[in-house]
Specification:
The complex is a heterodimer of chains A (198) and B (463). Chain A has 198 residues and is an alpha/beta fold. In chain A, 32% of the residues lie in helices and 16% in strands. Chain A is globular. In chain B, strands 5-4-3-6-7 form a 5-stranded parallel β-sheet. In chain B, strand 4, helix 3 and strand 5 form a beta-alpha-beta unit. In chain B, helix 2 crosses helix 5. Chain B is globular and about 55 Å long. The chains are: A alpha/beta (198), B alpha/beta (463). The interface between A and B is large, with 58 and 78 residues. The structure holds iron/sulfur cluster. Iron/sulfur cluster (SF4) binds next to helix 4 and helix 12 of chain B.
Chain lengths: 198, 463
């Protein structure tokens, strides 16, 4: 049992309207030196959040107190680049439980699902709507309903369905991970490992 | 219905298919390193699990290790702790550990092939996205996250949705001084940095058939930079020749059986791809990047283009601002502060031969700092044995010790803020080579030409 169960999330959102955000930006390599999964949230988007003298970059959305919430809304091709799971740990540790974009990099998406951050892929036009809604009212609340696989803009009743496999959905809503599943399959695995392919 | 190379290898590793879920995939070989493995071992401990097949996992220290004075203790406290932790975990679980100074130590994707661990038809994973490198041998190889590292340690399997299939054909012949790196960057510039997301790529056509194994590794290595899970090339005579006799390669009757099986690993005539691209080798020139993702690349002789329709204007401008470049700027002649030869993309012996072939008899520019970092101890030894070190030294270059180095700048090898580096690595992301560093990706030949003149130089103008 690896993380909190995910059912319904009601929250305002933090906008990051930039395309191709890579995992080196989400967490720069120099912060990957830990041997435990602790404290990564402090360095989330480090080089965009802080100047080199450690003062805050005021214009960066995470430093803008009008934006709060457990949902991060980002431009397309979010999470490309390095496979570092530390990127998702940082997002989780900072307090986000869902990331919304119109397009995710593969490994990043897998990493999210493996630790209980819900990656929600929406259409380009719906993503635009969400950004506009946050711009209109930064406290606007969104609802993520995992059971119905729907993302809802509560103020306007504009909704969009999202995809998730039945397997991952059940994992997320029960807080299970893949190892919980795999350890019951060990006999099958060892039988397979003895098979030769040539 | 015919199968693709990818189907053949994937399907033969599926232990179980889950309805509306992933496949449970058996993993033949697993590489680990000091940065993405520690938390996986903590996970094992918390669950009270052992490593299921320790002999299938190989460990190296490469990501944060120093590239000078490797015989001394690592100065950086946290880096030292990560390497120590890896060693301790490996000892505890009986995993092969090739630490600093070990003669098989080096960058994870360099040492796998060079020790014969990487073979056709295998599934290979590692907590590093450039695991795609091993696909050059007709293996399915891809990067995974730390939760998945834990899965492989615990159960020798991972759960993955089968990706879609793409074939990229490059036919014709390459012009002189156009290298495998240029071919890869060319393809990424055409497809964009997300153009192959969701796909596994097979590279086919005469350009790849004529390429050396080292070159094929460079190409497969960069598959992830267009978003692909991985890339692969069907094994052929060259593949066998490369593997034969290496330490972990099959021997005697096992070898005979292996090559018989490997000869079946190719896409059937009627194998079906979800997407296919065709390019002409003659059209490819030496390439260079100008922005902050590998898709922002052009032929070196060209000027920086306008944003494409598919690109967001603000993201494009953000990239140019970071680089302090303008639309319409010519690339040739831009002043460069650093040149980096190395990484799992271009840190193999062939890359050092290529670099040396250009600088031979010339002098390094005084205004350039050049960091040359072999991909492994074996590469380092060949550099010495083949006389390449002498050529480098005579031209004013120094050689460092093996590791990832400035590819991700986790150790001390950081390009300073605002400086420009022509780099043979794989990522030009903001800050990738150090906070504020500006990276231009290119081939070892472009790197060599630039190191000689101190400005971006087309190798064809020198040779
Ligand atoms: S050289 Fe760079 S890309 Fe390759 S394994 Fe090391 S850090 Fe990763």
């Amino acid at each position: 049992m690896a993380y909190d169960k995910f059912k319904i999330l009601n929250s305002s959102a933090v906008p990051l309207n930039i395309d191709n955000v890579d995992t080196d930006q989400i967490i720069p390599a120099r912060f990957l030196k830990a041997t435990e999964r602790k404290g990564f949230g402090d360095n989330l988007f480090r080089d965009w959040r802080y100047n080199s003298d450690d003062s805050k970059v005021e214009s960066f959305p995470l430093n803008n107190s009008i934006y709060k919430g457990k949902i991060l809304v980002a431009g397309k091709n979010f999470g490309c680049g390095s496979s570092r799971e530390h990127a998702v740990w940082a997002i989780y540790d900072y307090g986000f439980r869902a990331v919304v974009s119109s397009f995710f990099a593969d490994i990043f998406k897998n990493n999210c699902l493996n630790i209980g951050v819900l990656p929600i892929q929406v259409s380009d036009s719906f993503l635009e709507e969400i950004f506009l809604e946050i711009e209109r009212d930064s406290t606007s609340t969104f609802e993520i309903d995992l059971e119905d696989q729907e993302f809802r803009v509560l103020s306007s009743n504009k909704n969009e369905k999202f995809n998730i496999s039945a397997y991952k959905k059940s994992n997320m809503s029960n807080g299970f991970d893949d190892i919980d599943y795999l350890i019951n399959k060990k006999d099958k695995i060892s039988a397979f490992s003895n098979k030769t392919r040539y | 219905m015919g199968k693709t190379l990818f189907d053949k290898v994937w399907d033969s590793h599926v232990i179980e298919k889950i309805d509306d879920g992933p496949d449970v995939l058996f993993i033949d070989k697993h590489f680990i390193h000091e940065v993405t493995s520690p938390v996986a071992f903590v996970g094992l401990k918390n669950r009270n699990l052992k490593v299921m097949y320790p002999e299938r996992t190989f460990a190296t220290a490469d990501h944060n290790t120093p590239t000078t004075n490797q015989h001394l203790p690592i100065k950086d406290r946290l880096s030292a702790l990560q390497v120590k932790t890896l060693e301790k975990n490996c000892n505890e679980h009986g995993i092969n550990f090739w630490g600093l100074g070990h003669k098989k130590n080096g960058i994870v994707h360099v040492i796998g092939p060079e020790n014969g661990i990487t073979q056709p038809g295998l599934t290979i994973v590692c907590g590093d996205s450039h695991t795609s490198t091993h696909g050059a041998f007709g293996a399915i190889a891809f990067g995974i996250g730390t939760s998945e590292v834990e899965m492989v340690l615990a159960c020798q399997t991972i759960m993955q949705q089968k990706p879609m299939k793409m074939r990229i054909n490059v036919n014709g012949e390459l012009s002189p001084n156009v290298t495998p790196k240029d071919v890869a960057i060319y393809i990424i510039s055409k497809l964009s940095s997300s153009g192959a997301t969701g796909y596994f790529v097979e590279y086919a056509g005469s350009v790849f058939e004529n390429m050396s194994m080292e070159g094929r590794m460079t190409v497969c290595n960069l598959s992830i930079e267009m978003g692909a899970r991985g890339g692969m090339i069907a094994p052929d005579e060259k593949t066998l020749e490369y593997i034969k006799g290496r330490e972990y390669a099959p021997k005697n009757s096992e070898w005979d059986k292996a090559i018989k099986y490997w000869s079946t690993l190719k896409t059937d005539e009627d194998g079906i791809f979800d997407k296919e691209y065709n390019f002409n080798g003659e059209e490819i020139e030496p390439m260079i990047t100008y922005g902050t993702n590998p898709g922002m690349a052009i032929p070196i002789s060209k000027s920086i283009p306008k944003a494409k329709k598919s690109e967001s204007k603000s993201s494009y401008q953000k990239a140019l601002d970071y680089m302090e470049f303008n639309e319409g700027d010519k690339m040739i002649g831009k002043k460069i502060d650093y040149v980096f030869l190395g990484s799992c993309t271009n840190g193999r012996i062939e890359d050092f031969r290529t670099f040396a072939s250009l600088i031979k008899g010339r002098k390094k520019s005084n205004s350039v700092n050049a960091w040359l970092v072999p991909g492994s101890h074996k590469v380092l030894k060949s550099i010495r044995d083949e006389g390449i070190l002498d050529i480098l030294t005579q031209s004013g270059f120094k050689l460092r010790e093996p590791g990832c180095s400035a590819c991700l700048a986790m150790n001390d090898d950081k390009i300073p803020k605002g400086k420009y580096a022509v780099s043979t690595t794989n990522r030009n992301f903001e800050g990738r080579q150090g906070p504020g560093a500006r990276t231009l990706l290119a081939s070892p030949l472009v790197a060599a030409a630039t190191a000689i003149t101190g400005q971006i130089t087309d190798p064809r103008d020198i040779i």
